[in-house]
Amino acid sequence: MSAPLTLAFTLSFDPFGKLVVTMADGSQHLGAVVVRAFPIATPDQAISILSAEGKELAWIERLSDLPEDQRAVVSQALQSREFMPEILRLDGVNSFSTPSVWRVQTSRGPTEFVLKGEEDIRRLSTNTLIVADAHGVQFLIRDLPALDRHTRKLLDRFL
Question: pTM for the whole thing?
């Protein structure tokens, strides 16, 4: 069992919900931002804490290295910054030509969105896709082969 990580900073939120980073020397940075280096491939590793000006204040190798209270603050900061629902199932499409309306089940619940064109489906790897709707919201398909047969069949019409 490894010893707990000694942090050179602490994280908290001010009364207005802005992230505050307090460094070991006592200096404070209001309005800091938490950013994942590789949000899809390794979401719990390689996390940077940036000042409001964009200067890196701290680097977190693994989220699990942080004490529970600080891990909760980082997770909350990431959730408020990132919004990429994962498509779990494709219920139907109104047309196989674009633009088309997609009815999907996501990690955030059911929704409908408009796919403007096939170019709005980007392949990140053999199993991972990003689908952008007409408003710029990005949806993640993490594991294409793991999806049900109906969903894969519909997706094949657009790929």
Answer: 0.63
